[in-house]
Automatic annotation (TrEMBL):
Residues 1-22 form the signal peptide. This is Porin. It comes from Vibrio fortis. SUPFAM superfamilies: Porins (SSF56935). Pfam families: Porin_8. Keywords: Signal.
Amino acid sequence: MKSTFKLSLAAVLVSSAMAANAGIAIVDNEDGNFSVGGNVELNFNYQDRESNENGDAEFNQDGRVLIEFAGEKYATSGHYVGVKAQPLFESTGNVALDDAYFEFGKKDSWAIKAGRFEAYDMFPVGLDVFLEYSGDTSNELYTGDSAYVYQMKEARGRGSDGQLMYNQSFGNLYLEIGTMIGDRSDLFSDTYHGTAVDHDNAKDSFLVRPVVAYNMGDFTVAASVETNLISDAIVDVNGKDISDRTGYGLTGNWNHGSWNVNANFAYLDAVDETNASVGLNALYNNFGLGYVYGANEYDSTWAQGDVKVNTGYASYEFQNVLEVEDFSILLGTYYTTVENKTNNVSAFSEDDDFGARVRLYYEF
């Protein structure tokens, strides 16, 4: 009966807050908080990609609505428990999920987080309204015949199975140990170096990603490593272990006044290839400019030599459009090229791709 009364009271408070604040609900007191928020993102895209088979320019629209439910419960000792869920309603009609996790710990000290989330960003790209590469990023997929722009994200999070992370702050020093568990064969498409990937016999992986960061006034530096501890977790049809991958990353940020600058470096030691990426981007007021360089070196019977990717991008944000707070219109564009210097002339097609985007964004 007591629990039912508490839930009913919370529901009344949430409903009242939503009615009063146009879609934002907050219950906040010394015992804890509960909030409902989110954002809307709608993109109008133009792309001219040489990889397009018919050679035509592409026009399309995509986007999503994110709804966030978040709550925390506090103890007088400073400890807490928290939960967050962010369902995504895509303009395609699909329903997906961004973050969904449970955490507990002590405020401004330590925390343990489990579920679905993203760990520390070791390759921040700034205001990336529209950013794609002649190849694939390491967020989701390694494609056999495409260049790979490694960004220290293979073990960062939002995998299909699960994550567990511990983090703690010691003044200006921040430590984080993140793990991902389960099937990670979805990192690879159909082939690796010309040989089919054996997705049917994949084992569960165990990825570890420690991060250490230090803040010095306007400067923050961070270093990290990520690796898979399970042998033969993913193999090709010949039995070769292609899950033996170890990445290293270093990133620095300078944030002063209207300036925010990131410098990134990432290096991956993989089977029969290495991947190195360098990124530099800056945000001044509402204008963003960035550059990413990727260099892949192959040493196998399938390909030997280098593949290089150069990508530049720019963006601008118009804030509080029509004098509506938190309503923005963003403009973004990118241009990317790939240069194949391997002995495999049929792979890594030298495509020059261009894209431009108008984004409507509202946060509530």
